[in-house]
Amino acid sequence: MRLRAHCRNFTRLRPLGLRRGFTFVELLLFSGIISIMAGALVGFALVSNNISVHNEVVSEVEQNGDLVMQRILRTAKEGGRIAYPLSNQAGNELLITSGNPEKEILFYLHGDRIAVVENGVASFLSTGEVTMDSLSFLHYGAPESVEGLSVVFRAANTAIANSVRAGQYTKIFRGTATLPPGGCAINADCTAAPFTTCCEGLCRPSCGSCTSHSDCATGNVCCVEGGAATCKAAGSCATPQCDDVADCPVTASSCDLANCNYKVPTCSANACTTQIVGVCPQCSYCGDGRHDPFKGEECDDGNGVNTDACLTRCRFARCGDGARQPLGKNGAAGGGDDEECDDGNANDDDGCDSACQDENLCSGGVPDGTRTGDEQCDDGDGGADACDSFCRITVCGDGTIQDPNGRGQSEECDDGNALAGDLCSPTCLTVTVDECGNGIRETGEDCDDGKRCTTAGQPCQFDADCPGVWNLCRGANIDGCTTPSGCTATQTPESTCNDSIDNDCDNLIDCADTGNCPAGTSCGSNGRQCAAGTCACPGGQASESTCNDSSDNDCDGAVDCADSNCNGLVCAVGKTCQSGTCQGGGGLSAKSSGSFAESCGISECSWGPSVSKIDASDDQYAQTWLDCGGMRTCNVNAMNFGFSIPLGATINGVEVRVELGHTYGTPTDYEVRLIKGGTISGDSRAMAGTWPLADTYRTYGSPADTWGLTLTPADINDVNFGATIRADGGVDADGDPRVDHVEVIIYYTE
Q1: CB-based contact 420:412 (threshold 8 Å)
Q2: Are 439 and 455 in contact, with CB atoms under 8 Å apart?
């Protein structure tokens, strides 16, 4: 208190020329500067993140490609001899002899990755983050002269979640190596007895008159008998036949489709033979009983059972895989892994906990007929119907048959999972036993790779397993196993083109069957016809906009002014559609904008200078600078339309037509509003749904919609009147919305 009293005796002096506080304008300027700096920092962070992801992708492809190329060229230089391709020929495999028998090295393309076989063991050279194709080897020259190898392949990145799409970075790698003369230079280079003599670059027991079959006349082979190689008729050459695989007449690998074995040629015990190094990529499939790690299989027991340690999708059973294993992954009761349920996730409090044990969601422990708390349902009885005794909605895959279940499905079976490949389909329909095409390799079958959905390609057993329109379940013949389609033809050829059924079993439905349902064929109501493989309205208008041609242009059954879409549109000279009839006294004016700008908030995706390209429908786009997934774009503002509405007129409505589209991602509308007096105003008319891939006009508002504003002719004629659109980039990282044209239509009466 004394300090405070003493302070009262002092007079505060203010330095001359200084004032206290800030003016309101200065505060606004300061706030604006801070906002701009924050936006710049966020934008920089987003750009930096995109650059970081791009650099990671480029680095992965570059490193994989360089390492694979180095390994191939180094092995070729250090190996004894190129056995395949033959000299001055090209091939898609490289077989190198190491200078010692029975130690060949093979490089080849297995699926979309380059593999190597060494000492009879196959392995990948590249990581799973990179795919490779177009592998080719050119072998030129000969061991006794200048011999070399040229290699070429293409590498590309795989998709990374929602950040990077597959193939975003692709590079072709090329390499050349000049090989040392022969595999040996002097006898001292040959140390593996009895191959201690250097013969034209190859270690042999002794030098004969030939080193390979190509040295011999047609019909003769280079036969290794008695320690020296000589040319003999093929039929008179007994074993030993070879000292090295290069002596063998066949030096290219092959696939035994009958057994799906990938075979590599070799010289073993002086006899030309082959060794099995794995399964063939073209005939291996999940469920064939052959474990193929190159296809990503963790296991493959081929038994068509999802309640044991290996699922029909070739993954080891584990809690959270969506398939209930009553005995757990160890196949024996007890051990703490027996599953009571498995809903395919690791969440608690949803009826099946993270340890795959049942959770009773009933508030009082038993159903009482009133849904409360965490209950998914409560019908009071707990029977085998839509709601079980733990107050959970019953579903296909819960292990109990319901007809119908809580999702409205009629179940014929329920084996505790919704997976294909066993005797109960993903939609709980019973699969026929001993049927070719049920996905289970049964007695008498060489194979059974099941069926696939024609659209998405996922395993299925019935059409009901394939969601979506025209997505059918058909036999898959993609891997050397011939499976019947499972379709029964009722028409040959297709003659009914409007029933959504593949009547002739050619995997083409209705208008998609262009050979039998050609353009012009009736396919729907109100005059719809087949055109370019789809059922379309001949008028070509999604919403009636031509209102004076006596045609139903959008096939909704209403013509011209009788169609509510024509309300306010011109139907004759000096007349517009009003209340379903063509009447005089109205007006319409449609204009494109004359000035363009964007306005941005913090962390919004910019359109950049391209925003000026929305003045006409000319395929010159306003397009975002960066992939805008997970972000909203800045506002595209179109103004100065040059309207000259009579000052005494009444504004009835405003339509904004925006031609828009996208290439990647899932962009959607976020905001579509009018600009009145230079200020974004009124109600938003944003629509639901992803923007189309092809450029398409979307119409916002209507002839009777003023967007929640009171509009006068002076407002409309003002250079600062216009429209604005803002997009949501969607959840995919590569969202790229684009806008081609913005047009505004004014409906008025005088």
Answers
A1: no
A2: no
- Distance of CA 389 to CAs 132, 339, 349, 365, 397, Å? 53, 18, 16, 9, 16
More confident position, 232 or 146? 232
Q: What secondary structure, in 3-state letters, does 354-394 show?
A: CCCCECCCCCCCCCCCCCCCCCCCCCCCCCCCCECCCCCEC
Least confident of 348-352, 484-488, 599-603, 695-699: 484-488
Residue pLDDT, tens place only, 189-206: 777 666 677 766 666 666
Give backbone dihedrals phi and psi of 743, rounded to 5 degrees, phi first.
-130, 140
Count CB-CB contacts under 10 A for residue 306.
26
| Euclidean distance between CA atoms 554 and 547, whole angstroms | 11
Q: Rounded to 10 degrees, what is the CA torsion of 234, 236, 242, 243? A: -130
Residue 499: per-residue pLDDT: 81
DSSP state of 712: -
- Kindly report, as residue ranges, where domains of CATH 2.60.120.260 are found in the chain: 586-749
Dist CA 367 CA 273 (whole Å): 71
Q: Where are the beta strands (DSSP E) in 10-111?
A: 81-84, 89-91, 94-97, 105-110
Quote the Cα angle for 707-713-719, to 5°: 85
The per-residue b/e assignment along 506-540, b for 16 or more CB within 10 angstroms, e otherwise, is: bebbbbbbeebbeeebebbeeebbbbeeebbbebe
Q: What angle do CA 247, 248, 251 make, to 5 degrees?
A: 115
Residue 108 tokens read as 């080849």
Closest by CA to 298, choosing from 286, 282, 283, is 286
Tell me the pLDDT tens digit for each residue of 253-269: 788 877 778 888 877 76
Which SS3 state, helix, strand or coil, does residue 310 take?
Answer: strand
- C-alpha 262/C-alpha 255 separation (Å) is 5
The reported pLDDT for the residue numbered 15 is: 43
Give every CB contact of residue 435 below 8 A, 6+ residues apart in sequence.
Answer: none
Closest CA to 202 of 245, 240, 234, 237: 245
Q: Which amino acid is at 234?
A: A
In angstroms, the CA 143 to CA 79 distance is 12
CA-based diameter of the chain, in Å?
Answer: 128
The number of residues in the chain equals 750
Residue 629: per-residue pLDDT: 65
Architecture of domain 586-749: Sandwich (2.60)
Q: Which residue has the tokens 């080719």?
A: 136
Q: 167 — alpha (psi -120 to 50), left (phi > 0) or beta?
A: left
Which phi and psi angles does 68 have, rounded to 5°? -65, -45
Residue 708 has pLDDT above 90, yes or no: yes
Nearest CA-CA partner of 281 in 94, 67, 124, 76? 124
Measured distance CA(137)–CA(146) in Å, rounded = 17
Could you tell me the CA-to-CA distances from 503 to 290, 403, 497, 506, 632 in Å, in that order? 37, 29, 9, 8, 46
404-to-226, 379, 399, 408 alpha-carbon distances in Å: 80, 14, 14, 5
Burial of 498 (C-beta count, 10 Å sphere; 0-12/13-18/19+):
middle
Spatial CA neighbour of 153 closest among 131, 168, 169: 131
Segment of 6-20, 219-233, 526-540 carrying the highest mean pLDDT: 526-540
Backbone angles phi, psi at 403, to 5 degrees: -145, 90
Helix/strand/coil (H/E/C) assignment for every residue in 179-196 = ECCCCCCCHHHCCECCEC
Q: Residue for token digits 């709601």?
A: 387
| Residue 118: DSSP 8-state | E
Burial classification of residue 550, based on how many CB atoms lie within 10 Å of its CB (0-12 exposed, 13-18 middle, 19 or more buried)? exposed
